Model the fold of this input.
Amino acid sequence: MTDMTQNTEVEPSAQPRKTTKRGGGDPATRGRTTIADGVVEKIAGLAARDVLGVHAMGSGLSRTFGAVRDRVPGGSKSATRGVKVEVGEVQTALDLEIVVDYGVSIADVAKAVRENVVAAVERMTGLEVVEVNIAVSDVKLPDEEDEEPETRLQ
Done:
């Protein structure tokens, strides 16, 4: 009888290759992300407006110009009105100018605005908020009308 067994030795070149990582390191750490000042301003402005007791953002003059701009066709409400920021690579500082409703505790509103703005900016951008300065420029009285110019178009 003839021997019909086959030799099953594997040659070294036929062994599976080890996969090598290209580029080295975690893909999430490759490159830089920069965040524009305007992005942080919008986030902060919207977060501040969400707080109960904040009537408006910005000084009287900026609100008046904003109201005119809002009435222009194609114009939109400025989410950045009353907000100024300085953005670094890992930190940011913010200055907010707000108008509060009459009768609310300004200290409580400022605290709530600060907490809401810090939480929103840090969550959405990953930047550390080092300070939020709040200037209360006015109090909205219940019987005051909003400072919007009258329009001639009806």
Summary: The two ends are 110 Å apart (CA to CA).
